[in-house]
Amino acid sequence: MSRYSYLIPSREILPPLIKITHINYTDEFNLLATDNTSAAGVEADEYVEITNLSDQHQVMGGWVLKNITKGNPVFIFPDNFTLGPEDKILIYTYKVHTPGNFSFYYSPGDIWNDKEPDTAVLYNSMGEEVSRRSYEIMN
After folding, report:
1. Could you give the residue ranges of the DSSP H alpha helices within 19-133?
2. 0.85 surpassed by pTM
3. Rg over CA atoms, the chain
């Protein structure tokens, strides 16, 4: 029996400052492209919304967004990408992104299942999970 006691500091678990805040999993399936922002056979308006909940800029170069239910596709943030304080970014399935947003440029089909929920995970540049989100299917 030891005569010494050890104080081990507890690690407070803090909520993530960068969070997946929404998955828009459904859109009309585009059989024929009718404009320059869509491609035939994809759900162009699916997207994942990521929000910086802090009051600090967050450097996100090399961060990864992935549908872990399917295992792919993977979106890697550009090396120079920074998300401003309380800003949001949208990562679309295929749609040509509006200024400030991105796209997987995934074709054909969908990334986010319309019949059973998928799970999106955001990893930092060191491969550590930062945020995870799924969704409920609305009928």
Report:
1. none
2. no
3. 18
Contact in structure between 44 and 32 (CB atoms under 8 Å):
no
Report residue 89 as tokens: 């970014």
Task: Compute the half-sphere exposure of residue 118: CA atoms within 13 Å on the CB side of its CA.
Answer: 24
> Mind listing the pLDDT tens digit for each residue in 36-93?
444 444 555 788 999 999 999 999 999 999 999 998 889 999 999 999 999 999 998 8
Q: Distance of CA 32 to CAs 26, 35, 85, 113, Å? A: 17, 9, 39, 20
Q: Domains (ranges, CATH) in the chain?
A: 14-133 (2.60.40.1260)
